[in-house]
Design a protein that fits this description.
Elements: E1 4-9, H1 20-23, E2 36-39, H2 42-51, E3 62-68, E4 75-77, H3 78-81, H4 92-105, E5 110-114, E6 122-126, E7 137-144, H5 158-164
Length: 165
């Protein structure tokens, strides 16, 4: 099992209880299901945050954290469970159905899925209600801020400034 990475707001904590899934649906779950999303690398969680946030509203209280299981736990790879339709990045009903079936089956606490932003990268969905999920441990966390050179960080970039002048 690889390291699991998460970028979260300090004031909300790591969110390992999956409560966020109760209030909003995501690519791999419908609203009302407790889930926690992770990335397979620090880079993909940062890219995912940029893709899902208004650049002018990026929070300033972020933590970049790495989690691990002390011993391997079974994981389900999405392709072992169901074939993704060709247009899966635009058809969330299909991916939500797959995620729901995986949760109902209950065979693993982790579902490995491709990133819709960069399918060569892996994301992971945690079912916090699965007994193995309680074994997940925080290994390291640090304050995270977006570099001002990142155009979506809410800071003027060189490109933005050149368009103004």
């Amino acid at each position: 099992m690889p390291s699991l990475w998460r970028l979260y707001r300090t004031r909300h904590g790591p969110g390992l209880d999956g409560i966020g899934g109760m209030f909003a649906g995501g690519r791999w779950h419908t609203q009302g299901q407790r889930v926690v999303y992770f990335g397979g690398s620090a880079a993909i969680v940062v890219l995912e945050r940029l893709a899902h946030a208004d650049p002018d509203l990026l929070p300033s209280d972020l933590q970049l954290a790495r989690f691990e299981f002390p011993e391997p736990v079974p994981e389900t790879k999405v392709e072992e469970f169901a074939a993704l339709p060709a247009n899966w990045t635009r058809y969330e009903d299909a991916t939500r159905r797959i995620g729901g079936q995986w949760r109902r089956r209950g065979s693993s606490c982790i579902l490995a899925v491709p990133s819709a932003i960069l399918p060569e990268e892996s994301n992971f969905v945690l079912n916090p209600e699965h007994p193995d999920a309680k074994r997940l441990r925080l290994v390291r966390a640090r304050r995270f801020t977006f570099d001002p050179r990142v155009p979506s960080s809410g800071q003027p970039s060189v490109t933005r400034l050149s368009k103004i002048t």
